[in-house]
Write a structure and sequence with these properties.
The complex is a heterodimer of chains A (about 800) and B (about 200). Chain A is mainly beta and about 800 residues long. The longest helix of chain A has 13 residues, at about 1-15. Chain A is globular and about 85 Å long. Chain B has one domain (about 35-200): Immunoglobulin-like (Sandwich), CATH 2.60.40. Chain B is built from two helices and eleven strands. In chain B, strands 1, 2, 3, 5, 7, 8 and 9 form a seven-stranded antiparallel β-sheet that branches. A four-stranded mixed β-sheet of chain B has the order 4-11-10-6, with no helix packed on it. The termini of chain B are far apart. The chains are: A mainly beta (about 800), B mainly beta (about 200). At the A-B interface, helix 4, strand 21, strand 22, helix 5 and strand 23 of A face helix 1 and strand 11 of B.
Amino acid sequence: MKSLLTILFLFNAAVLLARQNCSITLSGKVQDESNRILAGATVQLANTNQGQATDAGGHFRFENLCKGNYTVLIHFLGYEPVEKQIDLNANKELQIALTLSEKLLQAVVVEDRATGTTPGTTTTLGARVLNETSGKTLGETLQQISGVNTIQSGPAIFKPVIHGVHSQRILILNNGIRQEGQQWGAEHAPEIDPFVAENLTVIKDAGAIKYGTDALGGVIVVTPAELPVDEKTGGALHLVGNSNGRAGTVSGLLEGSVKKLKGWGWRAQGTLKQSGDSQTPDYVLSNTGFREQNFSLATGYHGTTKGLEVFYSRFNTTIGILRGSASSSSEDLALAMERSVPQYTTDFTYHIREPRQEVTHNLIKINGHLQRGRHVWNAQYGLQINNRKEFDVRRGAALSQRPALAYTLYTHTLDAERETTLSEFHSRCVGLNGMIQDNNKIDGTQTLPFIPNFRNYSAGIFWIEKITREKVTYDFGLRYDYRLYQVAGFNFQNKLYKTQFSFGNVTATAGTTFKLTGPLSLTTTLGSTWRPPNVAELYSLGTHQSAAAIEYGLLLDEITSQIKELKGSSVKPEHAVKWVNTFKLAQGKWQAELSGYINYIFNYIYLKPRGITDAGRGPFAYFRYTQTEASFLGADASAQYEIVTGLSVRMSASLLRAKDERQNDYLIFIPSNRVETSIRYEKKTERKREFYIQARIKYVARQTRAPRVVAPHQILEAKQQGIDLFETDTRNFDFMAAPAAYTLGSLQTGYTVPVNHTKLNFQLSVDNLTNTRYREYTNRMRYFANDIGRNISASINFTF
Amino acid sequence: MKLNSKFSLVLLLAVGLIFTSGCDKDPEPENVPEEITRVVLVFTAPGAAPIEVVANDPDLGGPQSMEIGAIHLSAETNYTLTISLYNGYYSAADPAYNVTTEVQEEGAEHQLFFSWSAGVFSSPAGSGNIGTSGTVNYADEDENGLPLGLVTNWTTGGAATGKELRLLLKHQPGIKSATTTSADGESDLDITFPLFIGE
């Protein structure tokens, strides 16, 4: 049942829970009779809406409780449930021991709410994991979840991939707001500082329905901690250093409450990061440094039945792209790929030159909630201002100072919903979402704009129903979305075009969780969702410097490249049907999960090689956005076994086969199969000192399900003989064969000491332990250079 | 319901806030100074009319390839080749139309490389300096005294048909030196002309 409760975490993202105007903390630890820690046990406070799953250390913590009598219910599959009556006057710590159950488990009723998400398909990374990976980017952190990978562009750009799909097909909810940046680019990473998050949740089923279109592959939910109420000022300081890239990170947090205004809390948080060039085992990856400066401010009021919160965050980064990856013709690309050491490799430096990206993302959010009887009303407004500039290597010093691509994207979102508890077993949520986007080029790039200026008006309404029965939970959801685009851009002759068009469609999901016999549960969800094509997919025009390829959008005429109208064209929205089945087992020393899925995407939009053009810089492969039918069939499995107290082994594997069904071909950049094994020992002493050490081995198989290879030199040779390789054979292709399989080892250890009322935590880790030379198939840098070598990372975390 | 009306008010305010932003002005077109859409080769020999050969991109940034004219030279003649580069996104009256000047000014980070069907020229001999280490008779240089290639000297050999002359303009910011080759830097221009040498 822990999964049902992870929904509550999820909920924090979109909604503020109704909170009491009180300040007592009830915490504790759940173990079994032989002191084995029980992680993932559910702990509920009856008569309140609060429930939690215990963390990896078996801990739970309820804050801001009022004085009074509480009933605490503790459940864990395979154990007898425990019910404890507590008279709470002051902070209290509980030690709870569960006894193994021989008989069939009783059905557990958890009061959770309708989110349109079936619990079996969510995975949460909690505070402990986030602490152990502090200093990494969002995408890199999420890779720990099986079924989640990344598309990388060098050492600093990680774009999350869920079950093989990415970019526009994944929704990221940052503090409850749809993250809206220039997500169309494969080298555009999400603009989020992971230090903001208290936990990260990935929903892997389609159409997590509350959040709107686009969630074909899943949803990533970034949830900050709730604001403190009636607590003294506290905070945290994190210092992280990495040997590879000689990188340093400082992140601090300060929070407290306003004494004179009961219920008001505040938080200020900031992060500074700087990294120089990363290093492979043999050479420096020149111009792969990056810098980040982020901060966030929040304040809010929480009363018994109402609450209001204001949040502001700013994310600012400069990221270097490997200098040797910039090429401006197929010949340049051929030469760059043949080099054993990339061109322009120099000594280590912190200096970042072209090509580079400069990205700023601002988020302002205001949200409130109100409880009246069985209803909870929630409303939130968000404004995001995203500014992206990409600097290419250009002719002349003056032009190099100008970004070759520069856009400002304003996004307003408005969400309102009403949750209703109809009975102990039945809840309902209805709501509406509105969004207005305004994308404008920043004048002065002195290039043809890659995507046009546009205005996007979107509106959606949804209805979600959740019914809990003794052994079964049902979720149903339905939503309708409408989107209107107004577009004004320039064609390849630099002539203005303007147009307007709209899309509308329905999303539906149904999910159910069964308790099977014994400690087993089965969740099955079926979702159908859609997304309108993005403006970049419709109108892209231009060259990607790192791929030496020209891209043309869906609405550019095949022959003349002139802009076509959507009406009368064959362009359709993408539709996905995703079916996920998850078995969960939790018995004694075993915890296991097996999840199988199929995601069939109709009208799947992708870049397809279409031919060779020669516009004066030598032959170029050009790609057109094209629609096909794609299927993603895969499985994620994980199992954990506790050998003796404190010592556990864990194995996880993820398998995926993605196909272009119309052409009976494979898709490019699909993560290959991988297996990870880890062994972890942890110990907590009586004086509350904690220690852990962990060793991990990751094996990544070669991607054998990759499209054919057409190397740039083959394109050149064919061109010389007057042959167009793509004239008749328009199968997908890759410039280089998939790299070999590789194995990476890592070691990690941490130690936590309580000092008075503060906590000091030290971590030391070594990644790529053996300094292995390897290339990852989904890292776009693989065409030019090896991946990064050994990295030793040390961090100090101080919580006060 | 009291509650509903309160919330409607908040909603209304928020919606109002959204709709007041932005204005509907057409975007301004960008200048695109980096494009080279027209290349003109002029071969001059003493006592003869200059020979002009043009390569032109008919649809600028569109998918159509360059239309490349053929070079017709006389046998056993000394020629000076002058190369001019133009950007068809500008009108001929605009100074930005002529890219040659810009390449000249930034000569320290540019070099033109040439290759041709082996033996077509008696000087330079060989087949050029693209991918091989042959010589080219550069007649101009950058501020560091290194060859640039907008002006070059050629002596044709005997009659030949179906031959080729390729020119490759490389951008080598910060790396151009006496030892950099056609494999260094990024290509700004890469065109292969058909070449005929008459009696």
